[in-house]
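Figure 3 (text version): structure tokens given as input.
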């Protein structure tokens, strides 16, 4: 974490992050075009990296604390920080893709979970509800609320539906550094935690499991998977808190346009 002081962002700085969010959303969409059974995860990473570089930006994750790729690609029981590689996607997989874009001094950060082919109904529903929980959290990103209100909104929405809420990994502030204060857990108690202020830029990112919430770290030092090997989902937006609520600076619009063009379900 880059210091514990919360750094507020101006409208001009938020617009830089929004522009980076556009690049990131379009990079996600390029990846979405080729997600299908038989695709290797390393090919998805290459597509995103080339797209970001072509837009005179750089992938936020590449070489961040030694992470060797541009995307975190997490399949099935892998929650986050999965390595791209020679693994071929297969029918019934779910794949979370998390990426960042750095340009003009600021980062944008966003994640989306995709269905590969025919996914079983229980897993599909968990993915859908994880996405909905993101917007439950975003609705609490307003001045006067506290980070605990945001976390409680995500936790209560998902736990009421029988899902696990990962606690070891959390959202975070975003700005000139990829990870800034405050931490943004996906669980919490109403009225507790850091007070949310206008000017905060937050990456809100529920990580939800179909089984129990417990996770393990693999030997590579990065990959986080569910202890019970149940599938997981992960969605993330970067938002800027305004005087009256918040604005979403990243976008799923390009992703979901691709999904519709492929005649795939948009959850």
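Below: residues designed for each position.
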């Amino acid at each position: 974490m880059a210091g514990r002081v919360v750094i507020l962002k101006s409208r001009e700085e938020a617009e830089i992050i929004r522009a980076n969010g556009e690049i990131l959303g379009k990079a996600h969409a390029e990846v979405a075009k080729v997600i299908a059974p038989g695709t290797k995860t390393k090919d998805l990473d290459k597509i995103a990296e080339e797209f970001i570089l072509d837009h005179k930006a750089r992938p936020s994750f590449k070489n961040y604390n030694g992470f060797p790729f541009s995307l975190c690609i997490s399949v099935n029981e892998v929650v986050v920080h999965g390595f791209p590689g020679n693994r071929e996607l297969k029918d019934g997989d779910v794949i979370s893709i998390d990426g960042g874009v750095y340009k003009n001094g600021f980062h944008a950060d966003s994640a989306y979970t995709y269905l590969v082919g025919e996914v079983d109904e229980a897993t599909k529903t968990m993915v859908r509800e994880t996405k909905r929980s993101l917007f439950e959290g975003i609705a609490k990103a307003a001045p006067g609320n506290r980070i605990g209100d945001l976390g409680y909104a995500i936790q209560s929405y998902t736990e009421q539906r029988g899902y696990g809420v990962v606690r070891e990994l959390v959202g975070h502030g975003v700005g000139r550094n990829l990870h800034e204060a405050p931490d943004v857990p996906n669980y919490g108690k109403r009225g507790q935690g850091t007070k949310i202020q206008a000017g905060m830029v937050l990456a809100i990112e529920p990580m939800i499991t179909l089984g129990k919430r417990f996770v393990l770290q693999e030997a590579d030092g990065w990959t986080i998977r569910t202890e019970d090997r149940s599938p997981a989902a992960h969605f993330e937006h970067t938002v800027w808190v305004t005087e009256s609520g918040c604005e979403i600076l990243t976008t799923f619009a390009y992703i979901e346009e691709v999904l519709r063009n492929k005649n795939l379900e948009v959850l």
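The domain at 11-261 is CATH 3.90.230.10 (Creatine Amidinohydrolase).
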